[in-house]
Design goal:
With 253 residues, the protein is of the alpha/beta class. The protein contains 8 helices and 13 strands.
Length: 253
């Protein structure tokens, strides 16, 4: 059995937090199980762990703490997500009606090596694979590992719509190995980049996260029909969920 190895570069995420919040996270002394830090204007900040949630401060969050973080991270895209260069961390914003940021979810990104064993025979078979699961169960972790392993012997292109597979910035995170990465300017253009990847870069494998729109499902079928292996994810817990979704049912038709 492959030994799992985890890297999270947590220090980089802690560096963008206000000192009082950072010290509270460190005092909790449970970094291995830390999932995300939730910061909302006018509320007590909290740290969410695998086994529960704890408050981090006794005082409510002000605009100053939110500004402290946003000034130290990348630009928020159309999907209200920002990243940190050469890491897998993700910061998602909640905005008010005027577009001002009033909440942040700072999610810890981890590269976990050795997790793909359970489906390695499938991804190495050359057949397309769709991974289902609710948010947070590790679909991206499997995609990242699949891309890294397949890229050792095949031409792999990742279509990285929110930069959560290959990390933020122009240089992909080492966790994806030799796989190439195409970023997507806007989430609505994901299907176009999927087709562009096939037409322009001659991949043997396309890796993509969160196929959720009809045009993306059509693009996925087009890719498969061209003989390119596709490894992707979609939200849903069972195959029945997918079949009952008129937008995504074409993926398994």
């Amino acid at each position: 059995m492959t030994q799992h190895r985890i890297t999270d570069d947590l220090e980089a995420l802690l560096d963008v937090l206000p000192l009082n919040i950072r010290h509270a996270v460190e005092k909790a002394n449970n970094s291995d199980k830390l999932l995300e830090i939730v910061i909302d204007l006018g509320r007590i900040p909290a740290a969410r762990f695998v086994d529960g949630e704890i408050p981090l401060l006794e005082k409510e969050i002000t605009h100053a703490e939110i500004d402290h973080i946003t000034e130290r991270i990348g630009t928020f895209d159309a999907d209200n997500r920002a990243g940190m260069e050469r890491t897998l961390h993700r910061i998602s914003a909640i905005k008010n009606r005027r577009g001002a940021i009033v909440g942040l979810t700072c999610r810890v990104g981890r590269a976990v090596y050795g997790t793909v064993d359970i489906i390695q025979d499938l991804i190495e078979s050359g057949k397309s694979v769709l991974i289902l699961g609710r948010p947070g169960v590790g679909k991206k972790t499997l995609l990242r590992e699949a891309a890294r392993i397949l890229a050792e012997n095949k031409r792999v292109v990742i279509v990285d719509t929110s930069n959560e597979i290959g990390g933020d910035g122009d240089v992909p995170h080492p966790a994806v190995g030799k796989a190439r990465r195409m970023q997507v300017r806007e989430p609505m253009l994901q299907h176009e980049v999927m087709i562009e990847a096939v037409e322009n870069h001659n991949p043997e494998v396309i890796v993509i996260d969160e196929i959720g729109r009809e045009l993306e499902a059509v693009a996925a079928r087009t890719i498969a029909e061209r003989g390119v292996q596709l490894i992707g994810t979609a939200h849903g817990q069972t195959l029945d969920n997918l079949l009952l979704n008129p937008t995504l049912s074409d993926l398994v038709g």
